[in-house]
Amino acid sequence: MNKQANKAKPVSFRYLFYDFVKLTAALPGLIWLRPKWIFESPAARKRIRGGCVVIANHAGFLDPVYVMFAIWYRRHRFVCDKLFFQGKKRWLFQGFRCIPVDRENFGMDSMRKITGELRGGSLVSIFPEGHISQEGEGGLASFKSGMVLMALQGKAPIVPVYCCQKPHVYSRLRIAIGEPINIMERYGSRPSLPQIEGIVEDLRAKEEELIALVNTKRRIKEK
User: Strand, helix or coil at 191?
Assistant: First the structure.
């Protein structure tokens, strides 16, 4: 794991809007969502320190909120399409310190910005499907390989997260968190293209395992 710990200040002008919203929305969010955290193993329970890439499924517009509740003790830098910074709600994405990227032409400038954040100890959250997918109509969509390159160049582990969509307003939010995956330890600093493609498939398979974990826990509770 990245040895450079995230020494985030309790109060930061850069994150003033982020921290204000997080603080004021915490209690109402806990009451409404009643989150249930499900950890893959004892290693997944450990707090995440330093730079890290968080990947999560993307099935609804509230997913960023769910991911923030998943790892509530860290500030998230979400990667999102630059088009969101051009509309009337761009202030929202700017206030939450999101990182704009061009999904159609992802360049080195975007990569350097993201890896710079990771090396600086930030937690960068990504939806590797690249768009909202309908899990009930074929499961998870294919994952993009960019997250692997970001983790490698940022020298950061990848933490898989699965947020189960709430079937009803009164349902609890169930969140599964997997163990941190250090790609460099498994494949070295320069994996081949076939290896990168294999890593992407392994990460997608890990998300499927987290889905199965959530469903198993739910069935056990219902018995």
Answer: coil
- In this structure, is residue 177 part of a structural domain? yes
Full-model pTM: 0.89
In a domain, 7, yes or no: no
The CA-based angle 185-199-156, given to 5 degrees, is 45
User: What span, in angstroms and rounded, lies between the C-alpha atoms of 182 and 186?
Assistant: 7
C-alpha distance from residue 122 to each of 2, 115, 146 (Å): 10, 9, 17
Bridge partner residues of 164 (DSSP): 174
**Quick one: tokens of 133?**
């997918």
> Can you give the residue range of the structural domain that contains 117?
13-222
Q: What is the pLDDT of residues 122-132, one digit of tens each?
A: 999 999 988 87
In the chain the beta strands, taken as DSSP E runs, fall at 36-39, 52-56, 76-81, 99-101, 123-126, 158-164, 174-177
